[in-house]
Amino acid sequence: MHIFERHIMSLRSQALAVLAANQARAADQSLGPSDRDAAILNIDEVQAMLAILDCMTPNLRPKEARQIAARIRALLEGRKGQPLRIGCL
User: What is the pTM of this model?
Assistant: First the structure.
């Protein structure tokens, strides 16, 4: 397995761990509504990141790489309160 693929798998497993933690926080009734809402927003962001990671291949063309980088920047800049749908090219 190439180093690139190992990095993608590692990022994906980390994102899945964050997703599980946020799902647990969103369902935790002992937390306040604002904490649960923040967890739900984090779930949307992590799901968008997983969609990006699912699109990654070791042989990306420069145009595809730029588009994916733009999607990641949009995700990191945060569009709080707006649904973020990111799929493969």
Answer: 0.70
